[in-house]
Amino acid sequence: MQWIVDGVYLVVAALFVIGLKAMSSPTKARRGIAWAGIGMILATLATFLVPGMKNLTLIVVALVIGGGVAWWAGRVVKMTDMPQMVAIYNGMGGGAAALIAAVEFARGEVHGPVVATLAVLGSLIGSVAFSGSVIAFLKLQGIMSKAVRLPAQNLVNIVLALLTLGLGAWIVIASVGAGSANPWLLVLFFLLSLALGAVVTMPIGGADMPVVISLLNAFTGLAVGFEGYVLGNPTLIIAGIVVGASGTLLTQLMAKAMNRPILGVLFTPISGEAQVGGAALEGSMKELTATDAAALMRYSERVVVIPGYGMAVAGAQHKVWEMARQLEELGVEVSFAIHPVAGRMPGHMNVLLAEAGVPYEKIFDLEEINAEFPQVDVALVIGANDVVNPVARTDKLSPIYGMPIMDADRARNCIVIKRGRGAGYSGIENALFYADNTSMLYGSAQQAVADIVGQLKDLH
Ligand code: NAP
């Protein structure tokens, strides 16, 4: 029977790799998720065939409960709440990895220094990922205040980390040969690890959250891989390595997109509370009507749409695409410019625009399109704020200083659609809204774009 299990695991490993490869392209991403999902199902089914596997009824009950909750959540959770869902599910993975280590210690099955070290490291990293993800979930869900900073925060982090590592080393030494350690030591170790994850994540808020979620995701992968080694289960090792490696790469890409070193995210977080940069903003916000906006774009040669979180909240993507098609019928060239951290999760805008039917060849990344803004007649910013804030380029005192932004301010004209004077995710005032070439179209994105669509009909 074991050879069947091993054969299935090999197929599963191939499916994970094929799935991940497909996910690197927006045209094949859905297919990639399906391939990886089939791999997960096969891996779970193969577990039932592992010789000597016990507690099959309990496993089925757990699968039904877990699968049922995930099925329900996947259907009801709104697209804008997806980051919270990713955070909490990711935390579950880390928590499960930590629990595997706890069970193996309780059974006295952790033999040898290598297995003991990996079990301890896996449970430390898994517990940190679990409690950190729970805090990320509470913050994104608005249940917890955005940033809670302890006095001497960095010192507390370091002392807690050293204590946890020291205790972990003690457990490794105690369990070599015996296969386990004093249960109270283990309980203390898990409590300290959970506290570490919570304390490190609590002060992080605002614009740093995507990087943290991705980092915790990479941690979960690492923890799962380590515990796979402890259990001698190759699929867990492969799945853990794939998640750990891709999570690490995603973390690096996002940190680069926001120009925030990863250590800076952990130790000098942006608080997420309303703040302004060093320089006071000059000028005033000028309002325009949907009629003016439609006319300005109708008589343009080139319009670039920059979507942001507000377009997602308003669910305006279908109207936006309708507007773009109208403009194209009128001879205007329309493209879409997507900032890597626009919205609330990586790829958020790409998914929404793809759902609305916008062809991929009309969608451009920051690096592909940014140099072209001086030749753009209208940059149409729809519910985006931080990702078009020029203070990131100019104001050294601003917390988002250095973050690459879409150069909407360099277009000949800029129209910003938003409901009012609300700040962006990081709570910072936006200099773009005060620029001479910028006009504000106030209103919810869906209605404002619908009004433009109505006006464009009259301009045919
Ligand atoms: P943003 O900075 O959060 O700004 C969104 C803007 O949309 C707000 O200023 C808001 O202004 C407006 N808005 C809200 N509801 C609206 C509606 N119904 N219709 C029209 N406008 C509406 O968005 P962003 O420019 O996309 O930047 C993303 C931010 O989130 C960055 O700071 C990024 O670091 C952070 N973040 C990103 C991720 C990720 O992975 N993508 C994850 C977490 C956090 P009004 O209230 O005035 O309407």
Task: Describe the protein in words.
With 460 residues, this protein is α/β, with parallel strands linked by helices. Helices cover 58% and strands 7% of the residues. It has helices at 2-23, 29-47, 56-76, 82-106, 113-140, 153-175, 183-201, 209-231, 234-257, 262-267, 290-298, 309-314, 317-329, 348-356, 366-369, 391-394, 445-458; strands at 302-307, 333-338, 363-365, 378-382, 413-418, 438-442. A six-stranded parallel beta sheet has the order 3-2-1-4-5-6. Strand 4 (378-382), helix 16 (391-394) and strand 5 form a beta-alpha-beta unit. The longest helix has 28 residues, at 113-140. It starts with a helix and ends with a helix. The mean pLDDT is 90. Residues 83, 207, 209-210, 258, 308-310, 313-314, 341-346, 348, 383-387, 417-422, 424-426, 444-445 line the site of NADP nicotinamide-adenine-dinucleotide phosphate (NAP).
